[in-house]
Design brief:
Layout lengths: L10 E6 L5 E6 L4 E5 L6 E9 L12 E12 L3 E12 L2 E11 L8 E5 L5 E2 L1
Antiparallel strand pairs: 1-2, 2-3, 3-8, 4-7, 5-6, 6-7, 8-9
């Protein structure tokens, strides 16, 4: 799912932390979304930086919700390194979530954005 689906929604909570593996978003209509990386064998992906305050995203409609394609560095001999940026903004301010991924080059370093049902299972 693309994060731009969040545009126009009003958040009541955002929960995530630096070096964490997921960020949870809840809307005023009860929808729950999760941003995460599904871990595989030989990669490490985590929330590397949070630029801004989550409180700026609460209580006002999201005017901005976009993924900015990550910078990818590859040394074909040893590793792959990717940064992916997600920018969310309301009239109160904006937050940029920076995800960092490193692998041996054979595994995904991508971040997934999912909607969850009431039991916490992804809706596809």
């Amino acid at each position: 799912m693309d994060i731009d689906i969040m545009r126009g929604k009003t958040l009541v909570s955002v929960d995530g932390e630096l070096r964490g593996k997921e960020v949870i978003f809840q809307t005023d209509s009860g929808e729950i979304y999760k941003m995460l990386h599904v871990q595989d064998c030989c990669e490490h992906v985590y929330l590397d930086d949070i630029c801004g305050e989550f409180s700026d995203l609460i209580g006002a409609p999201l005017l901005e919700a976009e993924k900015i394609q990550g910078e990818h560095i590859s040394d074909e001999e040893t590793y792959s390194l990717t940064w992916t940026f997600y920018k969310l903004g309301t009239i109160k301010g904006c937050v940029t979530l920076v995800w960092r991924g490193k692998s041996d080059g054979h595994y995904s370093e991508g971040v997934d954005f999912l909607r969850l049902d009431e039991s916490g299972e992804p809706i596809y």
